[in-house]
Amino acid sequence: MTDSSRLSAGDTAPAFTLTDDSGNEVSLSDYQGKKVLVYFYPKANTPGCTTEACDFRDSLARLNGAGIDIVGISPDPVEKLAKFRDDHGLNFPLLSDEDKSVMTEWGAFGEKNNYGKIVQGVIRSTVLVGEDGTVEWAKYNVKAKGHVERILRDIDQA
């Protein structure tokens, strides 16, 4: 994957409609007029993804207070997302992108370095989309641990 397929500040965020952990369709356009943080993670109920999701859960009030909603997207099926939500008391939508088309369009699926090997997979990524649907910033290959705290620090400084 080349960096040219990744989103940058000022890009229009690609539209999507995906099924959430409750079986409802959720579209990016549902968030028009709001800021939404879209984060991509590889697999529900794995250590890193659980750490990151729980950090978002625990920080939701601060993020909402800054006018930002959260949406998590993974290639997991809806049933697995529902279990992930219930197991950890997650309080924001988890969307299923089983064919990875949205992840690919957002630059969050492709070649990545996994323990020294180049593999195809989900690239842990976070994109802040502004009220008008444009990308405010995009971060790729983020580390799960401490990622939400870094986002909050950036938001507090903005």
CATH overall fold name: Glutaredoxin
What oligomerization state is this entry in?
single chain
* Structural classification: alpha+beta
Counted up, domains total: 1
Order of helices and strands: EEEHEHEHEEEEH
Quick take:
Helices cover about 30% and strands about 30% of the residues. It is of the alpha+beta class and about 160 residues long.
Characterize the structure shown.
Its EC number is 1.11.1.24. GO terms for molecular function: thioredoxin peroxidase activity. Helices cover 29% and strands 29% of the residues. It is an alpha+beta fold. The chain has a single domain (3-157), classed as Glutaredoxin (3-Layer(aba) Sandwich). It has a seven-stranded mixed beta sheet, with helices on one face. Strands 6-7 form a two-stranded antiparallel ribbon. A hairpin with a 4-residue loop joins β1 (17-20) and β2. The longest helix has 19 residues, at 47-65. It starts with 16 loop residues before the first strand and ends with a helix.
